[in-house]
Design a protein that fits this description.
The structure holds 2 protein chains of 2 kinds.
Chain A: H1 3-14, E1 15-23, E2 27-34, E3 40-47, H2 57-68, E4 77-83, E5 86-92, E6 96-97, H3 98-103, H4 111-130, E7 133-134, E8 143-145, E9 151-153, E10 160-161, H5 181-184, H6 193-208, H7 218-229, H8 257-260, H9 266-275, H10 286-290, H11 338-344, H12 347-358
Antiparallel strand pairs in A: 1-2, 2-3, 3-5, 4-5, 6-8, 7-10, 8-9
Helix pairs in contact in A: 4-6, 6-9
Chain B: H1 14-18, H2 28-32, H3 37-62, H4 75-96, H5 100-113, H6 124-138, H7 145-150, H8 157-161, H9 164-170, H10 180-192, H11 203-216, H12 221-224, H13 227-238, H14 240-250, H15 265-279, H16 285-298, H17 308-337
The chains are: A alpha+beta, B mainly alpha.
Keywords (chain B): Cyclin
Protein name (chain B): Cyclin-like protein
Family (chain B): Belongs to the cyclin family.
Chain lengths: ~375, ~350
Amino acid sequence: MDAVEKANAARQQQWIKDRKVGEGTYAVVYQGREATTGRKVAVKKIKVGQFKDGLDMSAIREVKYLRELKHQNVIELLDVFSSKTNLNLVLEFLDSDLEVIIKDRTLVFLPADIKSWMAMTFRGLEFCHRNWILHRDLKPNNLLIASDGQLKIADFGLARDFADPGYKMTCQVITRWYRPPELLFGCRYYSTAVDIWSVGCIFAELMLRIPYLPGESDMDQLKTIFRALGTPTEDDWPGHAKLPDYVPVGQFPKPPLRDLFTAASADTLNLLSKCLVYEPRKRITAKDALSHAYFFALPYPSHPSKLPKCSTVMNKPLDEIDANVEVASDPGAKATSKSLKRKLASPTEAKARSIARRLDFSKAPPSSP
Amino acid sequence: MTSNALDSPATTDPKETEKRQPLYEASTQFRNWRFSPEGLAQIREKLNEAAVAVIRNTFEVDQPGSSANVAFLNANEEVVLVRLYVTKISQLCAMFRFPEEVEATAISYLKRFYLKNTVMDWHPKNVMLTALFLATKTTNNPISLETYTSHIPKTAPSDVLDLEFLVAQSLNFEFTIWHAHRALWGIWLDLQSLPDMTSNLEPSIYDAALNHIRASRLTDAELIYSPSQIALTAFSVAAPELASKWAQSKLTPDGTQSQLSPDTIPPVLGLIKGMVLKEGHVPDVESVREIDRRLRICKNPEKIVGSKAYLAKQAEDERKVEEKRSKKIFEMQKGQTDPFGDEIQTKNLVDYDDDDDDD
């Protein structure tokens, strides 16, 4: 055996897969642990054998960027190894995500909790942007939550680096509800501002507890945005009518944010509105957001360990794609998770599954940690 | 990515680390792919020795005494052969009109690959094709494998894909490369915004510097020096005065803040310049041909399809797989005949999900 193969085999030995927690067309996710320490991990096994062009782009992107990024608020890639025709990514184990928490009606969010999640999101994102990486798929379901409450940005399958302006990029990125208007208008030259728009939508969703701009189609998405924030004028956003896919979608007045976010403080609404500025160049940057008055005003952000947590531990797949996104450029982008959803849709189902498991005699009793 | 911090990595003062770490120093390139010239030589020597020992042994098992007259390649000859294939990558990139980033990335991959492998196991003419194909994907310039191989004579898609995992593993799955030509671009942009820029910034200066950087790709420079060091060297060869003007502009007024100082820059530039002058050219074709001729005799027989050693290794591998499979089947059947489980298992049963044989 070659030295390289031996090294790979040694790595493989280090990680033990305990149970499958999700399966999609292109990837299977296992919960597992490190052999020597027992540390919990998630192993994402990407089936490469079926791609006629070899390692697929989303796997390559994820590995490429996570190999370089080390930050408290970015998911950590612990190891990578291959097994026959599979690529295995060993990731830190995170038991929940922001979508699950938002949807859990039993939880109450204090303004300080929302501030804490926002601070962690902006910290992680500022680090990505500082490293010249656009995430391009921010949404609550890609913000994972560790057991100590730390929020981690995950799923870099659509990420890319950016450097020189004037480099053409695809506009078919970001899940629709979180996609900024410039991409919906077919803009091929864009930057960090696209991620900021998504964060703005997440910010609003944390307050509303339902998605802020849930468009039903790309066209409806624009309408939904304009209905909420007013149709942009040439003054608001110079040149937008010249973008490739520009279409007039009707004139909507601009209602005050206060009408919808009745309980929010002035600082809160100020930061939110700066994330949702139409003109991408005037949208706030992650760096500036971190020094926004919102984060320095009372109440201070909750300590991560004090944040609301889900009562039910979910069998969350790491990588789930929403039904409302079509990622045109990467057919193999993700674990398409119709099957995941069916299996793991609700906490009750997760509970039912664990009961079923208890009746399964072939399984070992839970071993002591 | 441009990196213009000319910081040499020698020591890190704890006080320094409290300051924000320069981006380049957090990269896998900085952490895992920088060597001293001596360290590099040592890695290659060891790799070469180990490979020769293994292959010699394989020869002897096949037929005792058969390795006595084989002239194995030495580490230097391996480097020369790889260098020839670096130039082939450039030729292919020109044909495909790939961006500079693809070419530079593929070249880095090829060099890194041979810090973990020997040409006697894997011939660079194959590895080069896989490294280039992988680089098109990692730099976000993908083309279909079919298009790729249809433009390369005598190459099937499987020739490229069969080595993809091996190449990716050898790179430790670290795909990001910091390139000197990006650092050069940074210097060029900086110069345009210097306040007292009076002289003309002729594009020919940039082009000349870029050519020096291209020459440096044939050397070990990128495995020893930072992209910014290589870029400044290239620029100082093309336009010495502009280069020192740029370097001056990067010095802090009191000169204490960084390790960048007028005393430390020139010696490093001299070393890189010497290296590029000495090795930054296409190796002599005749001598490479001689190396390649000997390689045909001394390459690892286990890697030659159809050879006795190859078949033996294949049979052994298959036997292992078969053993694993029958063990798994046995465990499964055991599970089935015992639906209620007489005794409580204290150990996990075999994990049925953990099948690596993909259907």
